[in-house]
Amino acid sequence: MKGHAPRFARSQRGAALLAAMLTLTLVATLAAGAAWQQWRGVEMERAERERAQAGWILVGALDWARLILREDARSGGADHLGEPWAVALQESRLTSFLAADANSAALLADQANDNVFLSGQMQDMQARLNVYNLIEAGRISPSGLAAFAKLFDTQGLDIAELNNVAENLRFASDLSPDNRSGARAALLPQRLDQLTLLGLSRASLERLRPFIVWLPSRTPINVNTASAEVLYASVPTLELDGARKIVAERQKQHFKSLADAGNLVPAIAGQFNDGQHSVASRFFEVTGRLRLADGKQSTVVMERSVVERNGLDVKVLWRERGSFPIAEGGLTAEQITGSRR
To answer: pTM here?
Structure first.
């Protein structure tokens, strides 16, 4: 029995040591879990705060853009790419905009927000072919269909797909009780991306994105801002070389009237008309981008808005925030975001 006592005592000490180790492991696990939960909560709160701050800053940027458009309307005249609204805001530190206000700049520095960068741009939506122009008075518009047919041809797309989109758009826009095709009509699109509901393939949409737009009413093409491809498509007998000549000449002096544009190519002068062309615009797209730099990582918040200007009244039609395709140098928002991290 005496020989077994030391062995039993060693067994008890071993069991006590094992229990202590298990207890220590359990306590460490619980402590680690609690610390992780606390860290996660702090990070979520921080992300939510940054998102809210970014949202307010982008709202301020949108109001600034509306003010620029309102002042441009106050001066009157044609809308062209030499005006202040057309100058893109290159990425700049947010504190540089508040340099005149020492209190605001100091507050931003105290909150460690000195690495906040803002950029943005405004684009004329009437520089593109409006898909809504395919319909006029409940019927397919011959002039609108002809313009899109020329654009489809330049992009190597199937005209049958265009005819299908136009027919489905006619069904969707016909709200009369005697519409026999109402049962199979798609909903009227509200965004450009929703054109796939009308039968436009995703590949064709991406190909056409720099040249087309969806606006809630028929709109003329602004000859001061449209690309050569859009001008070529919007004028029945205009050749692509003639369209490029118009674009080159307007860089020297913008057009104050449609007659100025028509005089450059006398053969098509009569084809610039007030119903399909203009030198002024009502619809603009405002894109704002806010980058929050944190070491090697960056958080990017982007917002896109479409505004309508009627006289001095500039109202927001819709806004969306996040990642979305944009026609900017052939890059998507995801690619832009990735290249800046």
So the answer is: 0.78
